[in-house]
Inverse folding.
């Protein structure tokens, strides 16, 4: 979930997206009609994926729009709370709808979120009754598919029943979010639930992929606080949920033999484009330090609001730059899949104003990216600093680390195309020379418009505009926020792409 710093730092501890999602899930529990979202393309291995809300089943234009965008996988909520809303009832209707869609679109891939609880199932260890945030009882009962292990039994029966159409499973959504919006516990408390999800899913389908729970900003800021770095907020949590999990799971003598109970690390990121690098640099360090390995990373929620400004949004053009620049930072961090949240505009993050007839400029940018360099291989960052550098002790509000511009190189899998992506990282315009290998190339702007350019003396000349969306916590008119430093640019200046 995107952190709405204005709300969270003033004490409500709820992001705008979190409130939208919680409201949607409460509606699910009353109607037993949890909706799903699907997307896909013939290029099933694409980096580009969509995470979304309930629109796909109700809007016939939704699925074709995602296919048109070039997404290769969709993330859906198919949780315990909706399927087992009552003690003696199993409602498979939404799974059956997914199965039908999968049958008609066999190349599409799916990721299903399985978590959340229900009051009737809540473990008495956790109080008070918390609805979807209440962990189901019996998570330590083995084997995990035993009837007394409510969550494990649900995971096992679900994966066994639908392993022909879903091969990737996510244990939970943002159990680390401040305020216990989705999980009534900490990282240590979460170990039994990640363990039972992994073991139950693997018992049902040994070849499936099990993700760790999607982590919000909070786990990252907690790490920064605990390790005396500079978290970019005034009231960060004091420890990392993911680190708490790793500390506890290391005590389990069976954990190493079972991949520490997850195949893929899972991170969410909103608004600040460089977070796609910095957040995952911290996740990779934690995995290396505790496990001695670096697992693949999927970012199952990323996004930007284009409502015209504020601390965590910007313009329609800034949204286009967020898509392009966060792509570069994710590639630098070796993120395997990136899920954009979302297609419709129900919470301001949509690629459409209205699906399918009113696409935003960002939709055309996303489509251009997915189709132009969807499977591009990262080569190098040719100029600029690696993100903000949270692990180096840097802060976005004290930008001494900036170099004027960033330049990234990628190439197509068959090496017939070379991609150079450039953007300024300050408010100052800059003219740069980019080494050329050809006499001409195609230049694409952030809106997807193309033109031919020629090289001169072995280089292309690019005029990069300065960044414009001055934002972040210090723009909030409150002394405690201003004390963090100067406002930041959530994204750099207008992005330019050279295709050789």
């Amino acid at each position: 979930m995107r952190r709405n710093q204005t709300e969270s730092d003033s004490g409500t501890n709820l992001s705008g997206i979190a409130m939208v999602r919680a409201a949607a899930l409460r509606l699910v529990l009353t109607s037993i009609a949890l909706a799903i979202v699907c997307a896909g393309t013939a290029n099933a291995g694409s980096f580009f994926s969509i995470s979304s809300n309930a629109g796909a089943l109700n809007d016939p234009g939704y699925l074709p729009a995602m296919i048109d965008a070039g997404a290769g996988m969709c993330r859906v909520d198919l949780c315990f709370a909706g399927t087992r809303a009552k003690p003696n009832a199993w409602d498979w209707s939404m799974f059956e709808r997914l199965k039908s869609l999968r049958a008609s679109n066999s190349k599409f891939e799916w990721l299903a979120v399985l978590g959340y609880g229900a009051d009737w199932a809540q473990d008495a260890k956790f109080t008070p009754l918390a609805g979807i945030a209440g962990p189901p009882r019996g998570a330590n009962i083995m084997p995990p598919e035993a009837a007394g292990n409510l969550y494990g039994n649900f995971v096992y029966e679900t994966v066994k029943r639908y392993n022909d159409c879903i091969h990737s499973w996510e244990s939970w959504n943002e159990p680390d979010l401040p305020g216990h919006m989705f999980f009534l516990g900490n990282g240590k408390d979460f170990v039994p639930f990640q363990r039972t999800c992994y073991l139950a899913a693997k018992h049902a389908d040994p070849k499936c992929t099990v993700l760790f729970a999607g982590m919000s900003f909070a786990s990252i800021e907690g790490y920064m606080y605990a390790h005396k770095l500079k978290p970019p907020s005034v009231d960060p949590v004091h420890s990392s949920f993911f680190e708490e999990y790793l500390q506890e799971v290391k005590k389990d003598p069976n954990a190493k033999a079972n991949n520490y109970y997850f195949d893929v690390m899972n991170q969410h990121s909103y608004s600040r484009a460089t977070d796609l690098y910095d957040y995952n640099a911290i996740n990779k360090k934690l995995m290396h330090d505790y496990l001695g390995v670096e697992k693949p990373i999927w970012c199952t929620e990323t996004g930007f609001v284009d409502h015209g400004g504020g601390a965590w949004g910007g313009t329609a053009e800034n949204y286009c730059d967020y898509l392009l620049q966060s792509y570069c930072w994710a590639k630098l961090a070796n993120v395997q899949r990136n899920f954009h949240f979302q297609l419709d505009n129900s919470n301001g993050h949509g690629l459409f104003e209205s699906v399918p007839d009113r696409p935003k400029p960002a939709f055309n940018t996303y489509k251009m990216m997915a189709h132009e360099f969807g499977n591009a291989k990262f080569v190098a960052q040719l100029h600029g600093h690696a993100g903000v550098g949270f692990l180096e002790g840097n802060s976005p509000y004290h930008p001494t680390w900036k170099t004027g511009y960033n330049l990234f190189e990628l190439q197509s899998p068959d090496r017939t195309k070379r991609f150079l992506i450039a953007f300024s990282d300050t408010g100052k315009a800059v003219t740069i020379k980019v080494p050329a290998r050809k006499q001409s190339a195609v230049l694409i702007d952030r809106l997807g418009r193309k033109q031919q350019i020629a090289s001169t003396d072995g280089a292309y000349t690019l005029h990069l505009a300065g960044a414009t969306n001055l934002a972040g916590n210090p723009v909030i008119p409150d002394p405690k926020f201003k004390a963090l430093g100067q406002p930041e640019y959530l994204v750099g200046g207008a992005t330019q792409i050279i295709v050789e």
Notes: The longest strand covers residues 297-303. The domain at 5-374 is CATH 3.20.20.80 (TIM Barrel). The first helix runs from residue 5 to 8. Residues 1-17, 19-44 have pLDDT under 50 and may be disordered.
